[in-house]
Amino acid sequence: MRNKRVGTFLIILTSVFLGNSNTNGETKKLDKNAEPRNELRALNPMAVADEQAKIEREEEKIEVLPDLFNDRKESPHFGLRNLLMKQKRSTLKQRRKRGKTVQQNKTEKKRRNGFQDYSRERRSVDDERDICNRDSRINLYTSLKRFPKPLEFERIILNDAHSQKALCLDGTPAVYYLRKARDQDKRWMLFFPGGAWCSSKESCFARSQTYLGSSKFYPSMLGKPAGILSSNRSNNPYFYDLNVLYLQYCDGSSFMGDLEKPLVYRNRYLYSRGFTILNAFLDEIIPKYLSKARDVVIVGISAGGLGVMANADLISSRIPKAIKVHFVSDGGLFVDVPCRNKQHVFSRWMRNLHNFHNITRALLLECVASFNKGQEWRCLMPENVLRFTNSSIAIVNSMTDAWQLVNLKGARCGYVARYCTSYELGLATQLRNSVRKALHPITSTKKHSFFLYTCIRHCMLHLNKPWRVLNVGSVTVEDFIYRFVGGEKNVQLMEDPGDNPVCTL
Ligand SMILES: *[C@@H]1O[C@H](CO)[C@@H](O)[C@H](O)[C@H]1NC(C)=O
Ligand SMILES: *[C@@H]1O[C@H](CO)[C@@H](O)[C@H](O)[C@H]1NC(C)=O
Ligand SMILES: *[C@@H]1O[C@H](CO)[C@@H](O)[C@H](O)[C@H]1NC(C)=O
Ligand SMILES: *[C@@H]1O[C@H](CO)[C@@H](O)[C@H](O)[C@H]1NC(C)=O
User: Fold this and answer.
1) Is 100 in the pocket of ligand 1 (CB under 6 A)?
2) How far, in Å, from the CA of 102 to the mean position of ligand 1?
3) pLDDT of amino acid 498
4) In the 8-state DSSP scheme, what is residue 452?
5) Which residues line ligand 3 (CB under 6 A)?
6) What is the pTM of this model?
């Protein structure tokens, strides 16, 4: 497979951008030197890669802390883990003997790094039942505090000269980032990062004051990317030299929102222009960058993955026919799985999203026609998008996706799977069964490619190690994507149930 000619690609990075907006929503001036604010949060792959590596390092250390360890005894994996941990425990003892207070040191170190202990934070959140009952209009995004150090990607403010309508939630202009390959302009990537959604004035207002809703926090250069975005050949042998355009996610609606007029909240204007941003972005980049392109790989993760699936037909209709497009969604396969109290959290979420953001033009017509009036929101559900889209999409997803396990099933352990109780692992099994059931009618058509693994994680493509190592059978995720781009459009890989969900990746 590897000797197949790889088509050219195109990567597009979301852009970032700066702007101050006054209360009448007009962008007054752009501050090119604005520094990212530390307290801001974003599910930005570059930030995530950074943070996730850190979390992994911290997780290693957390394992030796007796308090976290002991109250997770009920996990069926405890026995196995116990063995693995023996060594670490004795290390701990030795350290203690040497008079070192490891835990204290760790806390100090974290404080120094401004890093928050993920597992502890999770453990202190509300009871699971509150997750199931939670108002889906509340704001939700992964808490990541730091933005990566500026390095490779150059910020470009969307030159939306005609309409001036491609605005982030707070009215600042949309932004994308560009990384030019050194010596080729044929292979590109468009990249759409994630960050969940907002679907009420309150939550969109809160979001408008973060990276996920305003471009004014975006630095002029974007940090060192990993995984499929890495430009380091040893980390990313197939795609390291792609040109990349990276569209920052600041609309809260997976690039689908379509409110003509701004809403007013707390004396501020709030915009929902995701669909306009996507269109303005395509208007700008196609003539400007893609005139010599042969292949464009279009990658979205999480909410960006949903955005890529839902907008795939639009994007391929806009890109000239001579260019081959390859759609990849990672972590965007959200299913309507019942929470532990039988509530259907995700469908409620999508219904609110659809209503609040006036998502209409982004919906697939054939899909809308197949549902009764008032049910159009169902066309936001990935299973329906995949059924009705004319595009062939490569789906990379965990069947026990950590984000869904936490936010849709109500298992608090999701992001640190090794702390899952047997009850929580049971919820993971339910989730996997729901995914299989939802996908059954779709996999049977062979329209799409699937790489479905069982490890409890969320989004893998933008992380160095999983990108090279994660595999189903003997096929790694990087091989899977490489083959997909090379023309194998209906490879379906599904890891067997029961395969180690608490994986070490
Ligand atoms: C804390 O950790 C650092 C290295 O990470 C080590 O040099 C130092 O001795 C440790 N201090 C204590 C009190 O354990
Ligand atoms: C590329 O990655 C390898 C392996 O992670 C590392 O050893 C090397 O220093 C990196 N090269 C650059 C230029 O960053
Ligand atoms: C919703 O979107 C449709 C289609 O673009 C548009 O005609 C309509 O005016 C929008 N409604 C609002 C309230 O913005
Ligand atoms: C999808 O394909 C069908 C049948 O070929 C066609 O009628 C429809 O217009 C296409 N939809 C899009 C969005 O391209």
Assistant:
1) yes
2) 8
3) 62
4) E
5) 258-260, 358, 360-361
6) 0.73
